[in-house]
Structure of Fibrinogen-like YCDxxxxGGGW domain-containing protein:
Amino acid sequence: MRLQICTAAAWGMCLLVACGDSATPGTSATETETGTGTTSVETTTGTPTTGTPTTTGTTTQPTEGSASGTATSLPTTTEGTTEGPTTGTTTTEGTTTGTTGTTEAETMGTTGEPEPVCGNGQVEGTEQCDDGNDDNTDTCVEGCLNASCGDGFVGPGEACDDGNEVDDDACNNDCAPASCGDGVLQVGEACDDANTIETDDCLSTCAAASCGDGFVHEGVETCDDANADETDECTTLCAAPSCNDGIQSGAESDVDCGGPECPPCELAEGCTLPTDCESGSCDGGQCVVSASCKAIKQAQPNAADGLYDIDADGAGPQAPFKVWCDMTTDGGGWALAIRFAPSQGIFDFYSPHWTMVSVVNEALNSPTDTTDGKFKAYNVLPGGEIRGCMQHPVTKAYGCKFYPLPATTTLLDLFTNTPVGSDIAMKGLFFQEDQADMVKWLTIQGRTLADASIAPNYMAVGINIDDDQSCYDARVRFGLVLNNEVNISTLNDAAGFGAQSHYTVGCDVAPGVDAPWRTPCGFAGGPNIYNTAGHIWIR
């Protein structure tokens, strides 16, 4: 073994120590260089089998007088050769700077491999990859790690990578941008069920299903037309119009009333037609007090007989009043105008009540009352039909006859403005019907043609009929007249309301005076007078 040592302190001294060669298990060589203060040591060990070791070394000593410490090299060579295999070689290199005391060393690892260096392009140690570049968008990112979702770098196949585990921000945990339909509820989304079914709770737009979105929410809505039109087949409640939906829908004239399907509206509620109103009267788009019994009947087909409020002029100055309405016979809708007592009545042919504004027993407004009565309906209620009803003396039932009028009018105007007279004189108002129907004026009150004073050849029915062709006294305000002649001349009998007959041969009754043979309601057949109870109605 040979050891060569050069020290900076001695500058001119170099000690060479050599130990004789021997067949030892290993050979060691150390090389030391001095001049700049640097020492290099190389050691090799091995186990030879046979041969002569050879050692080569060079020693450099500084030149005397050199201020910089630069040395000139004096070569010294020792060679030895050992033949045979060598195992277990260890090499150590070290550099020491004497002026600064700093040591820079590259030391081989304990496994015999160098420490990994990320970025050198070689996969070493625990590195997953090493592509030798700074590009964090490829498959190998900073730290020599394989690119993966969640590493904070947008790598291949990723649309985003925010490096966090928050799944409801702008970038999902699968490194896909937040979007409707990804199944994750994001800010601004009401829902996200990750499907395109429009009939469930969540739309494909990530909006919660709601009425008006244009899609029928299964099990919740029956329709959804996405408009605000309440008059079509689907309302804003996403259901078909109904009479109890709390809105004015379909053909309703007001909320849940009016129109062809819903119950009539009450007073002051909206209307388009009279039938929209419970009162049967619509004025200015608003339900008002009924204008007539007929209007009530049309609005309420099942209305019962009884007293009703009537306002004949609607929004006009007249106040409403009570009217007895017959809602069941002859089609209903009849208003009671005059009631006739069964006997001792006051409404003879020339009674002033036929042509004057008056009321009689107004508070006793039931049709079954046995006193005379004249009601406001006679004076102010217009109608297009007139009806007369008379009581049968045996059954006590009322039989009626009704006729259309030429124009809508009040009964006061009808009896005041229809000239009293004959058909020959173009006076009176005559209703056309066959003889069998005319005879019913007798049969409804329990009488027949046999009760007449003559066998009639002339029969007529109408309003204000009078024989103005002779001095005979037969006449009627509303009903039937009879004569044995073929025309109205020498008229004999009358049946109905305000009826009078002629009995004497002479003309002994002055014009405008009621004849002795008369009845307010019944049949005057010559000297035979048959009184009964009765009514006149208007519709």
Observations:
- The two ends are 151 Å apart (CA to CA).
- Confidence is low (pLDDT under 50) at residues 1-109.
- The longest helix spans residues 435-443.
